[in-house]
Amino acid sequence: MENLENRTTEQIRRLIRTGKFMRPTTGLCDKYLQANLVIISQKSAFDFLLFCHRNPKPCPILDVTDVGSFEPKMVAPGADLRTDLPLYNIFQNGELLEKVRDIRQYWRDDFVAFLIGCSFSFEAAMIEANLPVRHIEENKNVPMYISNIPCETAGSFSGDLVVSMRPFTPIQAIKAVEITSKFPKAHGAPIHFGDPTKIGISNINKPDFGDQVSIKDEEIPVFWACGVTPQLAIKNSGVNFAITHAPGYMFITDIKA
Amino acid sequence: MENLENRTTEQIRRLIRTGKFMRPTTGLCDKYLQANLVIISQKSAFDFLLFCHRNPKPCPILDVTDVGSFEPKMVAPGADLRTDLPLYNIFQNGELLEKVRDIRQYWRDDFVAFLIGCSFSFEAAMIEANLPVRHIEENKNVPMYISNIPCETAGSFSGDLVVSMRPFTPIQAIKAVEITSKFPKAHGAPIHFGDPTKIGISNINKPDFGDQVSIKDEEIPVFWACGVTPQLAIKNSGVNFAITHAPGYMFITDIKA
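The joint structure predicted for all components is written out below.
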């Protein structure tokens, strides 16, 4: 990883585009906002944009492309959303069809792409404040869980909030709240800490997405709203075709966190 | 006006609905957010929501109704957007067709209503800080101008920024910046002060909307982004039908400013 540290966002995207970087993007270009990706047809785009607007905590919008365009002009001019993420999920009729490394063969002229803020964006600030970010320490993907907290519905899009988890001691958790509340475009402050069952998570050691990480004796789990939430809403909506990033394999923008 | 001061937002909306209040809403329910209204068909709704998202300064979104619904559930449950504003503009093919006090006869099942923040929302805070708000002092509508600052385009929606103006001395203007920067949902900090020609306004005494107000010798005009901006974008788009509030005749929400 060390030789990637001084690469620009454009250089990292080129490594991803040419298949030379295939891992989760946590820790990459850590001064820049990372983004969740959702691609759907123009027909569903209003409902989806409204879903994001009504659920700003899990779905802070960073950019929306013009219809048919795969270039996110506001956050990364020149980038190509069809190739510049390491892994994509393809959904058909609400079901996960396959995971692919390139979506050029799937691209359509009626597609609209949404980029949504990601909690990876505040992890550099955590590390700078000497907070241990467990999944980075353990070289894993962040653990993510489907909670029982309902989102606001918009048209056909509805579902429960997906959350990411980082374990901290209470004093670290307080610091983490202070830091992340300054990142509204990256989900902001946590939505819960402590007892996972209070938000419908029955087994903290079995995340629904990403990897399990160790939680030390004096630590409690702290939960943030997560940009995988729209993937659940897409499944629930049953839209006939959608493409997203694979959880943890994000798009790296040119916007400073 | 004095007997309106202690009315609730719901009571004021009922006065408006029953034709008992027909003036601009500046100064009304001054602890609550007021809102600009845009109603368009579902077909144009994605482009318009994207226009708002790309131009958050003139178009901070407060609420968007479900398709066909005239109730703004998030900001004023129970209100009726067809009757609860004192005056509406009806646009046909981008041209202002007429001004009406009730739009029930125009309502369609494919309509979506957008409520957008309004600078009236920060005027109470200005008055509390002993800043003179000229158009309120002179019992007029706020003066509004079409600037030459282009908005970000989204689909068929494009156009220049409309601004509202309040005259202040420099020290008052500084205070006004401090105050309004705390109201991002009501256009936030100003976009310009001083020479009006710098933003394409040739005659400060001839506003494009609202009323002319007096500017004293030691005062300079201070300009804020204005929620009339989307009306210009609607004219430019030539959408075949749209309804908005008439400038200055706003919707009063239940949300504390």
